[in-house]
Amino acid sequence: QVQLQESGPGLVKPSQTLSLTCTVSGGSITTNYYYWRWIRQPPGKGLEWMGAIAYSGSTYYSPSLKSRTSISRDTSKNQFTLQLSSVTPEDTAVYYCKLYAGTDYWGKGTLVTVSS
Which residues have CB under 8 Å from 18's CB, separation 6+? Predict the structure, then answer.
């Protein structure tokens, strides 16, 4: 059973960089054809796909966030990370990491608030 857990600061100041880590257990992030995703949900709004990193290390980004988003991985720790730069209060959301491998595996999500 694959399990994902997000971690990172719950409060980030405007203009700073938001950084979150997803730690994976029960499966390897290098498993063929697995794509590891970051998704967020602002308060009162729907889910927004932010980007993904593939088993190969290739990355994919939402066009609307591409200029501010970077996804990377540490295979030795079985983790992948999200960095979102130049944040504003509109980036306040619950951030999730997710895997689709025939079924959805979600982290529990972590609330990040952007505020001074």
Answer: 8, 9, 12, 82, 83, 84, 85, 87, 91, 112, 114
Strand pairing report for 59-61 and 93-100: unpaired
φ/ψ of 60, rounded to 5, equals -140, 140
Q: Are 22 and 66 spatial neighbours (Cβ–Cβ below 8 Å)?
A: no
Cα atoms found within 13 Å of the Cα of residue 112, Cβ hemisphere only: 30
Residue 13 has phi, psi (to 5 degrees) of -85, 150
Q: What is the pLDDT of residues 13-51, one digit of tens each?
A: 999 999 999 999 999 999 999 999 999 999 999 999 999
Q: How far is the C-alpha of 30 from the C-alpha of 43, rounded, in Å?
A: 33
Residue owning tokens 């992948």: 80
Which DSSP state fits 101? Answer: S
Q: Is the pLDDT of residue 101 over 90?
A: no
Distance CA 85, CA 93 (A): 15
